[in-house]
Structures are given as C-alpha cells and as structure tokens.
Write a structure and sequence with these properties.
The structure is a homodimer of 319-residue chains. Chain A has 319 residues and is of the alpha+beta class. Chain A has three domains: 105 residues, Nucleoside Triphosphate Pyrophosphohydrolase (Alpha-Beta Complex), CATH 3.90.79; 86 residues, no CATH class; 72 residues, Arc Repressor Mutant, subunit A (Orthogonal Bundle), CATH 1.10.10. In chain A, strands 1, 2, 3, 4, 5 and 6 form a six-stranded mixed sheet that branches. Chain A has a two-stranded antiparallel ribbon with strand order 7-8. In chain A, a hairpin with a 2-residue loop joins strand 1 and strand 2. In chain A, helix 2 packs antiparallel against helix 3. The relative contact order of chain A is 0.12. At the A-B interface, strand 1, strand 3, helix 1, strand 4 and strand 5 of A face strand 1, strand 3, helix 1, strand 4 and strand 5 of B. Chain A binds a DNA duplex (30 and 30 nucleotides) through helix 7.
DNA sequence: ACCATTTATACTCTCCTTGAGCATAAGATG
DNA sequence: CATCTTATGCTCAAGGAGAGTATAAATGGT
C-alpha cells in the first residue's frame, strides 16, 4: 500500500491490473436437505468474472443468479474476498480477486439449458451432519487420523496443542460439538493432509477422509458459507428465506435442523418461535400428513420492519 | 457472471481489468478513548493499491501497517469489499475493487515522517458515545430532523415505517439503545441527507448533524468497522489485543466501554471476566492510583489455544 | 488521629431464559 | 377400537444476567 492519502483516481500505471471474480454459495432447503448450487458435475461453485456494467457487486450477483434459476435471490450476503496470484507456476496468468457471496433462495428449480444443478451440502461435508448423532466415521476414521497427525508434531507441547485443537473443533474427548466451526474443521483436515485438495506430492499416500472434493478452494468457500449461515440463523430470521410461503412449525424446525446439522427440542423450538411473534397462522391446516394435522403458518413480514436489525433466537446454544 | 464453469485462468481479454485497493480501519484504545488511524488531516482512512508481491491480502495489509507504525498488528479481519466504477463522470478512470480491513493494535505510536495520525472515533460519530447517557443532541437535534424526514415520506404507511426505523436504530420512543447498529444509523442519516457526504445538490440546504465527515465512503467503512468490533468483543477475546501487557480490571472495563460506547456494571464485569478465566494475576499491584490499589492482570494466552474458537462473554446484552 | 473520598472486591437476591420432560389432543390405519 | 404418529399445552429445575449491599484499602485534608 502507498503512503499517498487516498488517491484511487491516480491509478498505478502498471502491475496492479487484476480481474474480479464472483463466486456464489447458493443455498436452498428441500425436504430437510440443504442444497447448494454447483456446476461441472458438482465439482465447483458457480463463478465468473464481474461485469462492471452493474452498479454493484451485489447487483451483479443477483442478476446472474436470477438469470440462471429464474428466481429472485431472497437474501444475499458477502462472504470473503481472496487474492489469487494466478495459477501457480504460470507467470502469465493474470492476478485475480475472488469475491464470494452467500445467497439464499426459496425454490430449487434451475433454469433449463444450464449445467448448474443442486447438490446436497453434506455430500461435501459428511462430518457436519449430526442430526442422527455424531457420524460413526468421525470416531472410527477421522479421530485416529487426527491423532496420528497430532503425534507427528515435533515437540510434546506442539503435539498436545494440535490434539487440543482437534478435540475442540471435532468435539472429541467428551467435548460438545460446535456446529459453527465448519471452516475450522475443514482447515484442520486440510492441514492434516486429509483433504484431497490439500494434496501435496509427498502426502499422496496419506489416508483421506470421506466427502466430495471441489475445484481449487471452492470447498473452503462453501465451508465459509455454511459456517456463516449456521451462525446467522441464530440471531436473524433468515431461515424464512428458504421456506415456502406457508409451512408448519415442524417443517420450519426441520429446515433449521438441516442447516445446523443437529436436532432441536421440539417444544422449545415452538415456544421460541411463537413468543418472538415471527410467524402467524394462516388459518389453514397442512394437508395429507401423517398424524395430527398441523396448523400452517406464514412469516410475519412485519418483523422485518419492526426489528429489521434486532435479533431472533433459536434453541441452538451459542457456546 | 458467465456460465462457464470456473475458468479463472481464461481471463477475459478486455474490459474486466480493475485495480485492487486496501482500506484499513486501524483501532487502538488509549485511556478510554478509541482511536483510529487517519491520513490527510483526519479526513480519510489509510488506503492504497494492493501489491501482488504479497502472498495474500492480509499479508499485504500487515506489512504495510507495520511499516507505517512500527508495531505488529494484533488482530486483522476482513470487513467488506466494494466495487467502484471509477469517479463518476470520468469514463477513463479505472474500475477498482476496494477491500476493507479491521485491524487492532496495542500501541498508538505512529512512525516518524508519516502523515498518519490517530483520531478519536467519536469525532466522526458523536452520536455513538452513550457512556455518559444518550448525548443530548440526539433528542434535541437528530430526532426532530429524522422526524421531519419521516414525515416527508409520500404515504402515511411509509411515514410510519420510516419513523419506526428511526426509532429502532436510535433508541427513540423509549426503546433501548443498541450499540451495534452503527452502520444502520449512519445509513439512515445518509438517506435523510443529514450527512455531508450524502450531499445531493438539491439538498445543500438540508440541516446537518454533528460529526466530522470523511472522503468518499470512508466514514461508512469506519462505521462498518466499529459495528463489527462492537459485535465481536461480546463473543471473542479481542479486547486484549488493545490492552497493554498488564492492566487492572477497571482499565479493561474502560476499554470495553470505550468500544461499546456504553457503561457496564462493574461487579458483573469482573464476575464474567474471572469466571471465564480470561486473565490471571501478575502478583503486582497498580502504582500511583487514586483509591485502593488494584491487582494487575495479564491476558491468559492459553485461552487462545483452549478455545481459540470458543466464545467469550461480556455484560453487554446482545438484543 | 479522623474523616471524606475514591476505587477494589466479595456476596446476595431476584427474575428470566433455557433445557428437558410429562401429558393430552387429533388425525390416520388396520 | 387399539395403535401409531404428529401437534400442542404446561411444568419444573438449573443456570445466567442484571442490579444492589457491604466491606476493604488506599489517598489527602483538617
């Protein structure tokens, strides 16, 4: 950076030209399955160069997604910006800045003629789904590999620190599982060379953990998006962006659980939703259900005005 | 964005070249005053083009700041990325992408020969300091102007919505003050043309609110940084990045209060800090104090390992 | 020496939230 | 009609948060 006081207009004549790319984590929930939009057979997130014909980054993203899926994006939030030095080894390759976004959409139809389609996000992060308890392969497969990695640290102190980190992020040694640590877990697995994308030559033989890989750092971006969303649903009414116009409280709960990757106490969930007046009855009842029919609710859009900025609560502890 | 699946390397030959700028919100706290680093006589945040000789954006920022102040940056976090279409009207001006960062630093010395210096952040946002209660000019000056703006809306419904928004963000009509809504307040004042930076020609005569303006959108970036920091101190032990090696609990409390812009209950503050084992006694006592001398504490760096990712609590309600 | 003042520090108390469980209602199915 | 399934209402105990009381340890003035 230069010392000169804010002189954007006097742009450097050379060397600093870059391209700007957008990368999108588009989320939808269908029948309790959280999906993300992917291209290239599920091996990449949708991405492309930013066109400066748009007013802003967000506008560009919305326009593109809406053209792609035919549906408006309910909620859009910027995630993170990286700088890439072009492909390694290829000095001619241009520098680029990648700006990633999280987008929530209600429907999961993808326009015809596009190669984009929806993939379940737990295909990429099977260890993140704790709705049926901690997946067995964490204890059976991941934990031992992490232990081996921790043991491989040069000093006993470092070994202990590594293992402590593993135990915290993966909820080992009787610790609680923290569903928000998606990115930390991914980065830990990367460091331990348990992720194919990390594949350094000398680690080719390293044992690998389940989960579908993605191009470049796309799985990391996805992890960032999931982490952000899991944190956000706890204090902002964003879940509703993923719901149909009318829904039962159980459907709402299932969506929250799908995102959080863990179950919540049903009665407490209802208590919180109702006491916050986030929803109102439509008067109708859910059709063709098993068991007692449930009331249908709709999101009270008024709350967006009442406390567009204020909080929401969900029975997911925020420790 | 293009439909092509992830082809960064096949960069567009034209039109998409941009420059990347970094903008920094650097925060330090001295004697209960939160400061930010500014240039150009306090009218701009430090910024400059990103040099691709650095490994990453964060590295570039750190290097630059350390060169500038001679001190390592304790904590760095990305804030937001904007795209600018060059200066309006100047078609030749290059497009640019501005990436803003929040940085915390312990000392507030600025290297010699630089024009950078520290400014109190409440100079720019006087309405954000509620440590001595709500500033009188909010009720006396801001609220009436906001009310006038709300009344100017075309329909009664819109008038009500506008006013509701004002009341929520500024804690009017007996609502609670929410210190995290820094950005929302700034944007509201902007919309109401009460901010010089908003200055549209036809509003030149509009009454203006106290607070020092900044170049371009720098005050908005600063608002983003303050908001982020106010939110962060509630669940991450970042305050310590701003403290000297040893401090009393009151000093720590004053720093938190300086950032949050509001007072906290002393006994409860201590209770929380101690029960979380964030600090440990140094054994020494504070010198030359008024009143009973206080024990000196230091931050327990171990907690960064123990729960690098886990939470912290402060007696600031998160409604 | 004594007192007012200032800050430090230890407890207590009450209300609210949260996590969890029990009980009952209202449908479908055989 | 018994049983299964989901919906929905209610209670209870433990912990946390907000706020107040009481006491201790220093300083400076009279």
């Amino acid at each position: 950076m230069a010392r000169s006081p804010h002189k954007k207009s006097s742009a450097p004549a050379s060397g600093n030209a870059v391209t700007a790319d957008l990368v999108a984590v588009l989320v939808a929930v269908t029948d309790g399955t959280p999906d993300i939009m992917t291209i290239a057979g599920g091996s990449a997130l949708p991405s492309g160069p930013f066109e400066f014909t748009h007013r802003s980054l967000q506008t560009a993203l919305r326009a593109w997604v809406e053209a792609q899926t035919g549906h408006p994006l309910g909620y859009v939030e910027q995630l993170y910006t990286f700088a890439d030095r072009g492909r390694s080894g290829d000095a001619k390759s241009p520098h680029s800045v990648s700006i990633s976004y999280l987008g929530l959409t209600r429907e999961d139809k993808v326009g015809e003629g596009f190669e984009a389609h929806w993939s379940g996000w737990y295909d990429y992060f099977p260890w993140e789904d704790h709705r049926a308890g901690a997946p067995a392969f964490i204890a059976r497969s991941i934990a031992p590999k992490l232990k081996a990695w921790a043991k491989a640290a040069p000093s006993p102190t470092l070994q202990r620190e590594r293992w402590q980190r593993c135990a915290i992020t993966f909820g080992l040694d009787d610790r609680d599982w923290n569903e928000e640590l998606v990115l930390q877990r991914y980065e830990l697995l990367w460091e331990a060379s348990l992720i194919p994308e990390a594949g350094r030559a000398h680690d080719r033989e390293a044992p690998i953990v389940p989960g579908k890989p993605m191009t470049a750092d796309h799985r990391r971006i996805l992890a960032t998006g999931i982490a952000r969303l899991r944190a956000k649903i706890k204090y902002r009414p964003v879940v509703f962006e993923l719901m149909p116009a009318e829904f039962t409280l159980l459907q709402l709960q299932r969506s929250v659980e799908a995102l959080a990757g863990r179950l919540v106490h049903k009665q407490n969930f209802r208590r919180l939703i109702e006491q916050q007046e986030l929803v109102e009855e439509t008067g109708a009842m859910a059709a063709d259900t098993v068991g007692r029919p449930a009331k249908l609710f709709r999101f009270r859009h008024a709350v967006l005005a009442e406390r567009a900025v204020a909080g929401t609560k969900l029975p997911l502890s925020r420790t």
